[in-house]
## 1
Amino acid sequence: MVTRSKPVAAAGPGAPGPLTTPAVAPHGWPVWGHDAAVETLQGAVARDRVRHAYLIAGPDAVGKTALALAFAAALSCLEPPAPGLACGACRSCRKIGRGVHPDVQSWDLARQAATAEKSGGKNTSMTIETVRELCATAALRPMEGRWRVVLVDDAETLQETAQEALLKTLEEPPAFMTLLLLADDLELLLPTIRSRCQVIELRPVPRATVAASLVAAGLPEPRAVEVAALAGGRPGWAHRAAADPKLLQRRQETVDRALAWVAGSGYDRLVTAVRLGDTFTKKRGEVFADLETLLGVWRDALLLHAAQPTYLTHRGETAERLQELARGWALDDVHRAVCAVQTCIGDLEANVRPRLAMESMVSQWPTTTTSRPRP
Ligand SMILES: [Zn+2]
């Protein structure tokens, strides 16, 4: 089964510093973007129509955990200011904020690693033992409120046997339980699991919304705009990056690699394509991340060509270098390059041979007439 590597602990409970705790958005939940999803869940709480299982799917750090915890808070708040909202200050809200509420429990790969250290396994997927443990918890009556909320993050890594074990709980859920499955990729879950959940898909958040969330959390506006531009629509990543300069630096290194690939000669491009193609099986997540960045770089070349700098993902030196390269290309050629990267990502997801997919992609890029080595 495919596994995705991901950083632990998004802007969730226990994370230090004001920047890692999202401020409350206009709809009353500390969730930025995803207004339709928030409305659905707020409505479920307000009308007392809470389902026993939700599947919240979307890219890493897009806001799945923030949404799930806000939902848990609204379900458990002792003094809700309005139906569907949480006060953020009562005993229950504070416990959820600190990750210690006895009726709201989270499971993910990190927790599995911490509790199953003895097994010495690789911990790249959620096992049946973990599911048995969380199902046993799910069956316990809530201690403090009406609901027991069980969060299962990294759900896309659930082994097939683990998913089958989970099905039993989904088929006969305790009346007081709601299960929140959080997954980067919906397709990696069994159809029988998906059909028993209300599916809520989260898409990347507009850049202006990400910037607004950072400003609301106390970041000066120019810096918020800069971080939001690199975040790729993922508020969780933006908040972590705002608090951790190393994350921004690593992101810049990825961008620099993508830019060097784009600016390279036909031969150099092919060499990179073959190298990445050959490492794909072992470093699937990293290669996909590199390709997403590459797609952003080519899209920026297209925007620069079309004189639409407002929507650029990359600014400063990166944009200047791209502008220089784009001058040597026709608009159609740049557009074809963007499509070629999208096709390559789709091909890799469809299990086309990685080297073939990569080679085909670079063969469709326009040649670099103005390319010269960077000092
Ligand atoms: Zn409260």
## 2
Amino acid sequence: MPTKIEKDAITGTDTTGHEWDGIKELNTPLPRWWLYVFYATIAFAAVWVVLYPALPIPGATGLTGWTARGALREELAAGSQQQQAMLARIRAATPAEVAADPEMRAFALAGGRVAFANTCAACHGAGGQGAAGGFPSLADDDWLWGGSLAAIHRTITHGVRADDDNDTHATLMPRFLADGMLNAAQVGDTAEFVLSLTGRADDAPAARRGSLLFAENCASCHGDRGQGNQEMGAPRLDDQVWLYGGDKASIVRSIAYSRRGAMPAWGVRLDPAVVNMLAVYVHSLGGGD
Ligand code: HEC
Ligand code: HEC
């Protein structure tokens, strides 16, 4: 029940006039400092609403014109400008210079990874691990055309047996059976010799006959012991890495009809900065030479 406002004898403060069962409520004033802070926050909020976008109206800006979106846009523009500057540096450098400069190298590895996922992974696998049917692994030490930065750069730029690039890697292995250079028995013997290079020949006399045929027909590209030749892109035949399969039937097929795997020339399709970044990235995968 509201009663009369009176002064409390003990504290000297007014009561509010409310009383319950004889207990009266004091009207204690707020501490001064609290009150001033409270007024200050109100004033701050008022100024804020004028200066910054605070009203729930689409497109509203304060007097300063600042918006979170605008700030982000500026930040992105600054970032892309920095990126353009870095790309220009990488474009003007050789792959070796890019790899030697820690800042350019870090940028190239990140950019190369993205470009690889977009452009190369379909054939070479997401991690460059290669795929069956002639798509070589780029993540091992086994290189068809050389694993140095310069060699990798050249292969990416000009491709392999690419018909729209005059500087492409162009070696063609003959189709020994199809072109009538060897008959079926001779192809079988040569395949037996190729198997013997990895200790897998079943027919020693055939492998011996094949060894003579190999020296005559194959050694110029694959090396006299099948050790391969990067000038020709002729793969090693004395290791466990096979582009087209290492069983006898696959080897016979490779000899009889040849394979002639092809890779597009990327120099005409990609920004030179991207080709440089890809070379550095691919080199980092395979350890390189
Ligand atoms: C259409 C499929 C295809 C695409 C896409 C492709 N490649 Fe290739 N790449 C090949 C084939 C096939 C070979 C092997 C050619 C041969 O038999 O010598 C090869 C070979 C290579 C080699 C040489 C490997 C060695 O052992 O010397 C490099 C390096 C390479 N590719 C990098 C790339 C990069 C980087 C990209 C992306 C820009 C790419 N490739 C995209 C099919 C492809
Ligand atoms: C003009 C060079 C050249 C000559 C000569 C040549 N090759 Fe090749 N050979 C290659 C190239 C390049 C490849 C890579 C595959 C391709 O054609 O794309 C290859 C691939 C192969 C492969 C498949 C390897 C794999 O990893 O799957 C076999 C097997 C092979 N050659 C055996 C022979 C034999 C045996 C002879 C002789 C009868 C021979 N080659 C003669 C260049 C040559």
